[in-house]
Design a protein that fits this description.
Chain A is an alpha+beta fold. Chain A contains 17 helices and twelve strands. Classes of the chains: A alpha+beta (about 525), B alpha+beta (about 325).
């Protein structure tokens, strides 16, 4: 049994390669396993307005950091007559627009399309925090701060809880005098951020400001929201400075980390930046393919996707053939259905795909039965085999042409699809069936004809299933799995389903013997 | 119940199609030996060289232009059989039992003209009946004369005996009888009767038509209970010798009994079917296992036959008494 051991090794190898590639594409490259998976793509536009003095202008805007969980589809820096460059600094990426001289109202745009991907990414080592500097505060303020910190510290166990408690206390709806002094309700959001950072610094906790954008469809003139991020010794934790909730909220795009300015304009005044947001729905698979092509991921770049669309469509069909072959193998080896010609059912199934099921079957039956009638006349003409089959081919073409013309005149456009049937194969089928009729009688013709049609219909149902179609085209590795299955089925030595009928009398007899 | 269970078939040792293809055909029959049996002319020459009796070859045709000599070739013979050299499953065989005034009579009594035979021959030459439609040759053989033993059991055709030979040991045998329903052919799925034959004695064991047990020939109404195949020992030895002749380990040997010349090999088959199990009401698996358990194949066909006869003889107690009780019951009712 060495041969079978070798075979199973090969099968296991093929199976693992196939499944491994599929998992790699799904988990690492982010290919969805179902065709209908959709993703939201956010398009964010930052609009920078300022008034120029007529001097050289430099505009510098913080750009959102590239994180592994996010895929940046497109970044666009549109501003007429401005030179643009992208800089990376310690504090993150910055975009810089520059012009020798500008006068009056100026506008610059930064547009970003981004979506959240499903890739599994290794956790990046978080950047180590700087030691917090003790802030310089006046005496009253410092005393109030220390009192507050003492209160909060008494209620907390670690930096994370401390920070949450601190933020909640500062935001409490009924502040005591101390809190009111610190919080200064007239001041804006930035003041609060500054306050929290100062208090955390007094406590010796490393913290920084995080500015980000809540993503909501159709919002215009949005500004960034401040969050506070602390380092608890191991990793950074993000806190909402209004509620004290930790963690990144859903649909929140982090734009900038650290205290650097969001926008710097040299040579202008009254500068401001505002954001507008649009949400689009895209098929996940298209997004992944595009991003794969852009980043030259080998598996995508050297795949069917790199072919022209027309060839891709041809492959869509070709990659379905193994599914048809698997159906034929199952029908013949496990079920034991007899078909006329081993793979003729697949060809019929392919034709059915083009014509739709019912039309296809009607056309097939019409062509074959008409062909059989004409063939029975031909058999009386005493022809040589090759000449006879050639004659049948011409007959088949004539039948097909007549069906097309008649149905067109009757206004049945579906029947025009008849040309998709493989004519030579049909001619051979007719020839075979007619010989079968003469030798084994109409019963055998019926059995084999019905078997072929049944197999073809089952293959058709599988091959037109949206999920199957999607999977075979986007995961050609499935062919390896298919191959492994066929190799295993090739080893099946058990009974076929039809043999349970074929030998049914044996069972009956046996039973009566027992009594 | 129209279906039986896997468990039941297993317990009876029935071999299925997949098991046959995988465990017997692929295992014992090297593909390079197939031409020896797929080409009936080669088989015939091999058999003659080995001293095995075969029907006499009257003539062969290889090319389409030979067809015009057909009338001339046939004129000398009153009875003959036309066969495709590479045909399978009895396809394309034309039997003529009488020739008279340019009319040829089939066993059914139908008369055909020479033109019909010419077209038949031409079809064979074009490969209509051969595997894969490859061009074929035609052979014309002498007609076999039915042995009187079988006269009561046959409708039109000549009964033939199928013996399954594994590694040279005959393991199962079946007599195939043409019926009116099978149109004179010996194909079981067309309605011919399959009669399981006891390897030990040559006696009929069990008979089926369309997979169901029967006790009388449907056309002649003769009971199978007293059917015994004559020359049994010689016949088995002939079948066993085909192993040395071809080298094929799993072989279906088709034998006919000629009134004058006794058993003759008419065809060998490298992929014999499985209906023989239904006709014998027994599975092949235990017998295959018994032969496979032998350390080596005995070089002498005669001693192999002796082994088989002793090993695979039917256990009479199972089938015969049951039948007798049924007959006894019917006589009781009649009385």
């Amino acid at each position: 049994m060495q041969a079978s051991a070798r075979l199973y090794t090969v099968v296991v190898l093929i199976l693992f390669t196939g499944i491994g590639l599929i998992l790699y594409k799904h988990l690492v490259l982010g290919f969805p396993l179902m065709p209908d998976e959709k993703k939201f793509v956010w398009t964010i536009e930052a609009k920078i307005d300022f008034q120029a003095y007529g001097e050289p202008v430099i505009v510098s805007l913080a750009l959102p950091p590239k994180e592994p969980r996010l895929t940046f589809m497109e970044e666009d820096f549109a501003s007429s007559d401005y030179g643009f460059s992208e800089l990376s600094t310690d504090e993150g990426r910055r975009g810089q627009w520059s012009k020798r001289s500008a006068q009056g109202n100026q506008t610059a745009y930064y547009r970003l399309s981004v979506y959240e991907n499903d890739k599994i990414a290794a956790l990046q080592p978080s950047d180590a925090p700087k030691r917090p500097k003790k802030p310089e505060l006046d005496e009253v303020f410092l005393t109030a701060s220390m009192t507050l910190l003492d209160q909060v510290r008494a209620r907390s166990a670690n930096p994370e809880i401390f920070t949450r408690e601190l933020i909640q206390t500062l935001n409490s709806p009924s502040p005591n005098q101390n809190q009111r002094l610190l919080r200064n309700d007239k001041a804006g959001e930035d003041y609060k951020t500054e306050l929290i950072l100062n208090l955390l610094a007094l406590e010796g906790i490393s913290a920084r400001v995080v500015r980000g954008l809540f993503l909501e469809d159709g919002r215009r003139r949005q500004s960034l929201t401040n969050f506070v991020e602390i380092h608890d010794g191991e990793e950074w934790i993000l806190f909402d400075q209004d509620t004290g909730k930790s963690g990144k909220p859903k649909n929140f795009l982090i734009w900038q980390r650290g205290g650097q300015s969001l926008l710097d304009v040299i040579g202008g005044k009254n500068s401001q930046v505002s954001f507008s947001i649009i949400k689009n729905v895209h098929s996940t698979r298209n997004l992944v393919v595009d991003s794969g092509m852009n980043t030259q991921a080998g598996l995508i770049d050297f795949s069917i996707y790199s072919l022209p669309i027309e060839q891709q469509n041809a492959f869509k069909m070709i990659l379905l053939l193994p599914i048809g072959a698997l159906v034929v193998v199952i029908m013949r080896i496990l079920i034991g259905i007899r078909t006329s010609g081993t793979f003729m059912p697949i060809l019929i199934a392919l034709a059915l795909i083009q014509t739709t099921l019912v039309t296809g079957i009607v056309i097939f039956l019409t062509v074959v039965s008409t062909g059989l009638m004409i063939r029975s006349y031909l058999s009386r003409l005493n022809l040589l085999l090759v000449a006879r089959i050639s004659a049948v081919i011409i007959v088949v073409i004539t039948i097909i042409a007549s069906i097309s013309i008649i149905s067109h005149k009757l206004g049945l456009s579906q029947a025009l699809q008849v040309t998709f049937f493989p004519m030579i194969i049909l001619a051979w089928t007719i020839e075979r069936m007619s010989v079968l009729w003469e030798e084994d009688g109409p019963r055998e013709v019926f059995i084999q004809g019905a078997g072929s049609l049944l197999t073809a219909i089952i293959a058709y149902l599988f091959m037109t299933n949206r999920t199957v179609e999607y999977l075979t085209f986007n995961f050609p590795e499935l062919m390896l799995v298919n191959l492994a299955l066929i190799l295993i089925l090739g080893q099946y030595t058990g009974y076929r389903l039809t043999e349970l009928y074929r030998f049914h009398s044996m069972g009956k007899h046996h039973a009566s013997d027992d009594r | 119940m129209l279906l039986t269970t896997v468990k039941r078939l297993k317990s009876m040792g029935i071999i299925g199609m997949n098991q046959r293809n995988f465990g017997l055909v692929a295992r014992y029959n090297p593909r390079r030996l197939y031409p020896l049996v797929d080409d009936k002319l080669k088989t015939k020459r091999l058999a003659q060289a080995a001293g095995i009796t075969v029907p006499k070859l009257l003539g062969t045709l290889h090319y389409q232009h030979d067809v015009k000599h057909l009338k001339e070739m046939l004129s000398a013979y009153n009875q003959f059989v036309i066969k495709p050299v590479k045909g399978s499953g009895g396809k394309g065989i034309l039997v003529i039992t009488e020739q008279d005034h340019n009319l040829y009579y089939k066993p059914s009594g139908d008369a055909v003209k020479l033109r019909h035979i010419e077209r038949h021959v031409s079809n064979i030459l074009s490969g209509l009946h051969s595997l894969g439609g490859k061009p074929d040759s035609v052979m014309i053989e002498s007609l076999i004369q039915i042995d009187p033993v079988f006269e009561d059991y046959s409708y039109e055709g000549i009964p033939d005996l199928r013996v399954i030979v594994l590694k040279g040991y005959p393991i199962m045998a079946m007599l195939r009888l043409a019926t009116h329903a099978s149109d004179g052919r010996a194909n079981l799925h067309q309605g011919a009767v399959g009669v399981g034959i006891d390897i030990g004695t040559g006696e009929a064991l069990h008979a089926v038509q369309y997979g169901n047990p029967i006790y009388f020939h449907p056309d002649t109404r003769k009971p199978f209970s007293n059917l015994v195949v004559p020359h049994w020992n010689k016949l088995l030895a002939l079948a066993a010798a085909c192993y040395e002749m071809t080298g094929l380990g799993y072989l279906g040997v088709d034998i006919v009994l000629d009134r004058d010349q006794g058993p003759m090999i008419i065809e060998l088959n490298a992929r014999p079917g499985l209906s023989i199990q239904v006709a014998n009401f027994a599975g092949l698996a235990p017998r295959v296992a018994a032969v496979e358990a032998l350390e080596k194949t005995d070089p002498d066909p005669q001693s192999r036959v002796a082994f088989s006869q002793q090993q695979f003889a039917a256990n009479r107690d199972i089938i015969r008494p049951r039948r007798r009780t049924r007959q006894a019951a019917s006589t009781l009712i009649l009385n």
